[in-house]
Amino acid sequence: MPVAGCGSSVAGRAVPRAPSGARGSPPIGKAPFVSLTRRQVSYAALAALPLALSATGTAQAGGRRSRTLYIAGDSTAAQKYADAAPETGWGMAFPFFLHDDRPVANHAVNGRSSKSFVDEGRLDVILGEIKPGDFLLIQFGHNDEKANDPARYTEPWTTYQDYLRRYIDGARARGARPVLATSVERRRFDAEGKALPSHGEYPAAMRALAEEERVALLDVQALSIALWQQLGVEETKKYFNWTATEQDNTHFNPPGAIAVARLVVRELLRTRVLAPRDVRRLDAQIPESWITWPEAAA
Question: What CA–CA distances, in Å, run from 278 to 66, 102, 181, 268, 281?
């Protein structure tokens, strides 16, 4: 099944808000096959769907100091504009699960890799703004894989890790907390309906780096492939940007972006990067109408 690439290049960092009143390393070579356990599949399904027993939606901010969550990433997280609707980055849904004193600064941009994001000066912009106590969520991999594009390609066990260290070191030097997130999986199945990994060695390289650098890791790749397996071949089409004119197995529509953002927030809780009082609505259905696509700046 063909898979669309991450594309290129509308930059954006608009932060969506809910409507008012709404409440070490393995050898380089062939990527290891990911075998999904029942536990993985069950956890991903629970993480991506509302939980009736969750009580975090009632947590109160209580006048705490604001701490911003910055996103450095690619098109799977990026803000989308009116000309791209209904394509939706998970970063657009991310604020719906966070209290107002945990704002989001979404710097993710279509088509960027860990290398090109740095080379274009985009990491410098974040490091010029980020404050002590803030967070830097780092998710790259889709475009690092493009071996025929020297402006973006990185090798997983060398240059990919080297570039990721720049984000980690830069955040730490400014008193902020770096957080690594493995790339969300594409929609890819074999003839028997098994969800297939598509990111080669990059998730393993990031996991190894997180352990080496003692950085919190959000394993979005493992959880998202488990979720796609749980949903199956046909149901996953409702989460990706499948329209009358396009069959995009990389980018999300509003339900997919909401589901992945929920995975991210649950991982932030699991790793204790965030506390239960930082989040809300994990037990709630998020209306698709909360997703909006502004007009791109001229």
Answer: 10, 7, 19, 10, 11
Measure the CA dihedral 18/54/138/169, to 10°.
120
**Contact predicate 290/16, CB 8 Å:** yes
Query: Which ranges of the chain would DSSP assign to H, the alpha helix?
Result: 38-48, 90-93, 114-119, 122-129, 159-173, 202-213, 220-235, 254-270
pTM exceeds 0.85, yes or no: no
Give helix 202-213 / helix 159-173 axis angle, nearest 10°.
40
pLDDT digits (tens, 9 = 90+) for 243-275: 888 999 999 999 999 999 999 999 999 999 999
Rounded CA separation 127/34 (Å): 35
Q: 77 and 90 in contact (C-beta within 8 Å)?
A: yes
Count of CA atoms in the C-beta half-sphere (13 A) of 132: 2
pLDDT in tens, 54-69: 333 333 444 678 999 9
Looking up tokens 């947590």, which residue turns up?
59
Count the helices and strands in the chain (H runs, E runs): 8, 7
21 pLDDT higher than 60 = no
